[in-house]
Amino acid sequence: MNTYLTKSLLFLLTVMFTLSCKPKPAEKGNNNQKSSDFPYTLSVEVTEKKNAPSLQSFVHGVHGNDWLLFAGRTNSGSTDDGGLHSINKGNYANTSFLPPSFNEDIFVYNIDEDKTIKISLATLDSVLKAKYPKNYSVYKDYKAVFKNSNALVKQHGEYLYVLGGYGPVDLVNPGKQYETYKQVAKIHVPSLINIVKKKYEGVNSEKLFAFGKDKDSLLVSTGGELHTTGTGSSLKFYMAGGHNFNNARQKYVDAVYPFTLIDSSHTLKISVNTAITDVIDPRQTIADNLSKFRRRDGPITPTLYKSPVKDQIEQGLAFYTGVFKPGNDLQAWNDAVYVHPNFANDEGRLFTIDKAYNQNNYNVYSCPSFVTYDSKTDISHTFLIGGIGDGNFADSGNLSGFTNTAVHIETNIGERPFRSTHQLIQPDDLFNQKDKNEPPFYGAEAILFVNDNVPLYAIATDKATITTEILDMASFEDTNIEVGYIFGGIEAFKSNPGTYGKTNSRASNKIWKVVLKKK
After folding, report:
1. Domain boundaries in the chain?
2. Could you report the per-residue pLDDT of 412-447, keeping only the tens digit for each?
């Protein structure tokens, strides 16, 4: 019997055994949780701000007090056709992702003034044609950057980088076929904001747009995350997780792909480096059944690690849970994968799988998150807020329930092998400040905008000082820390809504203030 057949039979037997045994609900008390000396409590407080658009799975950038928001899905008119796509209908082009729910505007929302201005994609088209023809000549082949769902997004400085996303093959006549896009965009945030505001004198046409595709079509993902390390000429990107979904077929990314970009006359030259993965070839279909990187729509956060080679702090990223494991029961992963791209572990790998970590089905789906590092203890603190994953395993064919819970994860960045512990934050319903986790639920596909006055951890190297996305606890003042604001995402009116609609789920425009309160 050949190796492939043996693995296939073992996999099928495992799935049959799993389906025959209904999992028990996860317990709150477990040996993976511990008390913490963390000197703050996490608070999520709803604001009175009412004028932001209703968006989920959207592209987002920041310049000062302005949020740049486009793509994603929304509630068209008075119909709540945003929210959770219908998971029980197979026609993703018409009945699951309804064409009217795709957002076709570019918004600028000012968080201080609670004010939104917008232009339509049709208006953007006209402005580029009339005022910026060089930009339009490259933009016209990449309009799906501005009309898609669940693209991978990262801002570095004034530039916003957008990769992939999911949407119709034909943007004008959507309906028959959807795809995961093969596209990477570099957008100058202040310039696009000024186009929306009609302040054309503030637009830098040389910086405005650049687009590209990698020649091997490796950078194709929706539901993953985009991360960066380094700065300046040493800036490197990482496409982490997600999947390539086309109509009823899908292939998980099963890897982290490092790549670099060079902007040349509005065109991105893309170089993809060797995949970081645990399988021989992550492009093969069988990799989905073998790889621990087979995850999408999960919390993938920036993090720090101490290198055993140079005993210095390096940037990396961490997968905490994610969906879905192989099989038909829609179960989430509950372990963790740590990617340390600049050094290998004792096994000679650029990643470490933390099999002992068990998040117990809490906060397993894409949700607002942030990380802070305490240099006195070498412990990083990761916070996952809301989303999907209420600590229970749903019946076969359903997701775990939507949730208002939050998880606090601690990792000693100098300890090897790397490992994490977590604890559930009280109260259970952090969004509504209730002891009982109950609807409406928030956080799935929402974004946390970190305030620009929060101190960030910086790494000093021989060539440059690299400012990370990690909050620097050593620079906190002895008071409450206003971390930022949670915005948008899915508002669910049931634990398992199964679809969109007024009594099920919709895209949200609510805004919440996130504060670390001094104990």
Report:
1. 36-518
2. 999 999 999 999 999 999 999 999 999 999 999 999
Rounded CA gap, 52 and 487, in Å? 9
Half-sphere exposure of residue 398: CA atoms within 13 angstroms, side-chain side: 17
| Pairwise CA distance, residues 79 & 66, whole Å | 28
CA distance 457 to 374: 10
3-state secondary structure 15-75: HHHHHHCCCCCCCCCCCCCCCCCCCEEEEEEECCCCCCCCCECCEEEEECCEEEEECCECC
Give the alpha-carbon dihedral of 86, 89, 94, 95, to 10 degrees.
-50
Q: Is residue 201 classed exposed, middle or buried when 0-12, 13-18 and 19+ CB atoms within 10 A define those classes?
A: exposed
pLDDT tens digit sequence for 296-335: 999 999 999 999 888 899 999 999 999 999 987 888 999 9
Q: How deeply is 290 buried, as exposed, middle or buried, from its count of CB atoms within 10 A (0-12, 13-18, 19+)? A: middle
Q: What is the pLDDT of residues 359-393, one digit of tens each?
A: 999 999 999 999 999 999 999 999 999 999 999 98
Structure confidence at residue 397 as a pLDDT band (50, 70, 90): low
Contacts of 58 (CB under 8 A, 6+ apart): 69, 70, 71, 72, 73, 103, 447, 488
Q: Which CATH superfamily is domain 36-518 in?
A: Kelch-type beta propeller (2.120.10.80)
Rounded to whole angstroms, the Cα distance separating 11 from 17 reads 10
Can you spell out the DSSP letters for 227-275?
EEES-GGG-EEEEES-EEEETTEEEE--SEEEEEEEEETTEEEEEE---
- For residue 4, the model assigns a pLDDT of 35
Would the pTM count as exceeding 0.90?
Answer: yes
Q: Average pLDDT of the chain? A: 90
Beta strand segments in 150-248, E: 152-156, 159-163, 166-168, 178-180, 184-188, 209-212, 225-229, 236-240, 243-246
pLDDT at 93: 60
